[in-house]
Amino acid sequence: MSSSNNKTIAVIGSGLIGHSWAMVFASGGYSVKIYDNQPGRAAKAITEIRKQMEGLESAHMLRGELSAMEQLALLSSYDDLAEALEGAFFIQECVFEQLEVKQNIFQDIERLVGEDVILSSSTSCLVPSSVFSKVQNQRRCLISHPVNPPYHVKLVELVPHPETTDSVMDAAHAVMTKVGQVPVRLKKEINGFALNRVQAAIIAESWRLVEDGIISVKDIDLVMSEGLGMRYAFIGPMETMHLNAPEGLEDYMKRYGQGITKVLTSFGPVPDFFGDGAKSVTNEMCELIPNDQQHLSARKERRDQLLMGLSKLKQDH
Question: Where is the 3-hydroxyacyl-CoA dehydrogenase C-terminal domain (predicted)?
Answer without folding.
Answer: 192-258
